[in-house]
Amino acid sequence: MTVQQAAPRLGILLQGIGAVGSTVIAGAIAVNKGLGLPIGSLTQLGHIRLGKRTEGRSPLIKDFVPLTPMSGLVFGGWDIFGGDVYEACKTAKVLDGNLIEALADDLKAIKAMPGAFDPDYVKRLNGTHIKAGTRRDWAEALREDIRRFKADNDLERCVIVNCSSTEVYNELSDVHQDLAAFEAGLDANDARISPTMIYTYAALMEGVPYANGTPSWAGDLPALQTLAIERGVPVSGKDFKTGQTMLKTVLAPMFKARMLGVKGWFSTNILGNRDGEVLDDPGSFKSKEKTKLGVIDSILQPKLYPDLYGDLYHKVRINYYPPRGDSKEGWDNIDIFGWLGYPMQIKVDFLCRDSILAAPIALDLALFSDLAARAGRRGTQEWLSFYWKSPMTAPEVYAEHDLFIQLTKLKNNLRHMMGETLITHLGTEYYEQ
Predict the structure, then answer these.
(1) Final residue belonging to a domain, choices 317, 333, 353
(2) 148 and 213 assigned to the same domain
(3) Which residues contact 114 (CB under 8 A, 6 or more apart)?
(4) Which residues, in sequence order, are bridge partners of residue 270?
(5) Structure pTM?
(6) How far apart are CA 358 and CA 40, in angstroms?
(7) Does some domain include residue 4?
(8) Number of domains in the chain
(9) Local confidence band at 123 (pLDDT 50, 70, 90 cut-offs)
(10) 9: which DSSP letter?
(11) d(CA 144, CA 202)
C-alpha cells in the first residue's frame, strides 16, 4: 500500500464552534505555543509497537505514519451564533481565563462562518448567524465556504469534524436511501434532510473527509455512503466516545471476559453546557440514547449468553443541570452476579470535563481521516471505531465496541498502511526465533 506524504499544512473545518470546537482550536494553539501538552491525543503522545517484543521498536505514532504536524494545522468553521473563537471560549467557560487571554489574538483571528440551521432539528437553540435560502442553497454555500477556506489559506488538503449539537432523531425514509432521491430532496427543500446531512454532502462533493462527532445522521446515511464511495472520500462516526460510554466499553468487556453476569445497568448524567440544554429536548435525547444504549448489548451478546445477560435491564438518563457547565457527572450503578448467582454491585461516579475529553478525539480524527484519504481509503472507516460511541460499519457486520479490541484494530491498520507485520499475539518470541 502506498500512502501519500502529509501536506505541510492541513485545514480543519469544524461544524460548530461551541464548547468542544473552541476547546479543540484553543488547545492546539496552546500546544504550539508551548503552553500545554496534547494529553489524550493518540496521534501526538501514543507509541506503536512494531515487530517482535524483542526488537524494541516502539516509535511515536506521529513519527511512524505521515501526519501533518500540529504547527501546520489551520482552523476554521461554522457556528450558528457567529463571533470568533475568543468569544466562543469565553462563552463556553471550559478553559482557564488566563489561558484564553494569552491566546486572544490568535483566537480572535478565527471567525465563524454562518451555519446551516433548521430550528426543527435543534429545538432548544435559536440560531442567529445562519445561511439563507433552501437546502440546495445551503449545500452550495457550504461547498463555496470550503473552496474559499482552502484558497484563502493556500491549503491543498482539508477535513471536516462535526462538533455541533445533537439533532432531533428521525427515521430514515425514501429521500435518504439513494443519491438521486437525496439530491432531488435538496432541490425540493425537503424538510426530512437535516443540516448535518447537508454538511456531509457538501464535504463529500468537495472531496473532503468527514467525521461525525454527534449522534445525528451523517455519513451513515445510505445515500451519502454511496456518494463517499463514488467520490473516494473517507467518512467515520458517530458520537465522540468521551465519558460514561468510554467506561462502559472498558467495564463490559471485563464482565464478559470473566463470565460474570449483569442483571442491571443504570446510567445517569448531569451536565450544564449547550449540549445539556439541547439534550433536554426529548427528540435530541432520543438520538443520544440510541448511541449510548447500543454499547452494552453489542459487547455482552445476550443471545449467546442468555444465562448471564438475557434479562439485563439497561437505563440511560441525561439531565440538564446548568450549574455544572462543561463539568459533567456520569453515575453508574451496575448489578452483577457471580458464582452460583450470588449478587454484587459496582458503582462508578465519573466527574469529567466533556470538552476536555472530546478535544483530543477531534484532533486525532482530523489527522487520521486525512491519513485515510492519502492511503486511498474510501467510505466507512471502521478502523476508527476506537473514537466512537456508535461506530459505523459495513451493513452486514455488527459494530465492535470493546475499547481494547478497537485499539488493536486501529494500530493494526496503521501497521498495514506502512507495510509492517500485524500484531496477532500468536506464539511467543521464544518460539518464533
Answers:
(1) 353
(2) yes
(3) 78, 80, 82, 129, 130, 131, 141
(4) 319, 329
(5) 0.93
(6) 9
(7) no
(8) 2
(9) confident
(10) S
(11) 9
